[in-house]
Amino acid sequence: MSSIHAPPKRLIVTADDFGFGRGLNEAVLRGFREGILRYASLMVNAPYAQEAAAIAKANPGLGVGVHIEMCRETPALWGIRYFGVPSNRREIEPIIRSQIEKFLALGLKPTHIDGHFHLHAHPTIFPVLTRLAKEYGIPRTRLPNGEWKVWRGYEKKGRAARAALAATYEALGRYLRKKAHGVLLPDRTWGLMRSGLMNEDYVVHLLARLPRGLSEIYFHPSAEPSARDLSGRGRPPRHHHSYEEFQCLMSPRVKEALAKARIELVEEPSTRPPRERNG
């Protein structure tokens, strides 16, 4: 393919867990206003979801999606339960629908939908999620994939365990893309291999190797450099939110890497109120 007709490099930059804590909400606000962040995935049942919604409304152009919680912890165990327990499988649609409705009740129009712990990429959950996304007019979701080859050129340790994780998601991705119900999927989504541990060097490494087409890189940033627990509950964090990841979003070096690689940031033109649905 000639360079004239080659697709551009287009990148979606997302912060997950919007609404989980004040430090994370501030990271989204500043990352959008001053950095490279353009999207955030909001947890409607999180302690600071209302604050997150207010930030979104005050900042048109910040694309906000639904970050579905199918469990609060032990995602591997819950993955087995959703696969093997009929009563749990029957709960999948009500859980997703309820959280979409809560998101709409916040007065926001979702630009995308994805899942906490990537549990939405479970083979019994993903087809339900994309069917509901289609019903509610949510245009995009994600499947983690394509990061292994670039990660192994950066990280020299823990390759065996990470290889198994990457292979699992690659296999799931090939299977689940056929069940997307017309919902847009980026060609690749990166962030899994160093979730909660993204740093400037690694992000620059990724950007220098970003292929053409539509990609997504997601982060778990916090604007609190010394915060151990973003929820304010006095316990060590379980969700690996990171000040270093916030710094990545603000980094001049990362911005230079985007420009050098001629990567176009995907922008959301506006934030509109949710459309009326019949019925």
Give a quick summary of the entry.
The protein has 279 residues and is an alpha/beta fold.
Chain-wise SSE layout:
Blueprint lengths: L8 E10 L3 H13 L4 E4 L6 H10 L4 E6 L6 H10 L1 H5 L1 H14 L7 E3 L10 H11 L11 H5 L6 H18 L11 E3 L9 H9 L4 E7 L23 H8 L1 H9 L2 E3 L14
Parallel strand pairs: 1-2, 1-6, 1-7, 2-3, 3-4, 5-6
Describe the protein's architecture and organization.
The chain has helices at 22-34, 49-58, 75-84, 86-90, 92-105, 126-136, 148-152, 159-176, 200-208, 243-250, 252-260; strands at 9-18, 39-42, 63-68, 113-115, 188-190, 213-219, 263-265. With 279 residues, it is an alpha/beta fold. The N and C termini lie far apart (48 Å). The chain has eleven helices and seven strands. It is globular and about 50 Å long. The chain has one domain: Glycoside hydrolase/deacetylase (TIM Barrel). The longest helix is centred in the middle third of the chain and has 18 residues, at 159-176. Helix content is 40%, strand content 13%.
CATH topology: TIM Barrel
Any low-confidence stretches, pLDDT <50, length ≥5?
227-239, 271-279
> How helical, in percent, are the residues?
40-55%
Arithmetic mean of pLDDT: 87
Instruction: Compute the number of helices.
Output: 11
Order of helices and strands: EHEHEHHHEHHHEHEHHE
Query: Into which percentage range does the β-strand content fall?
Result: 5-15%
Using the coordinates above, name the CATH class: Alpha Beta
Please tally the β strands and state the result: 7
- Largest sheet descriptor: 7 strands, parallel
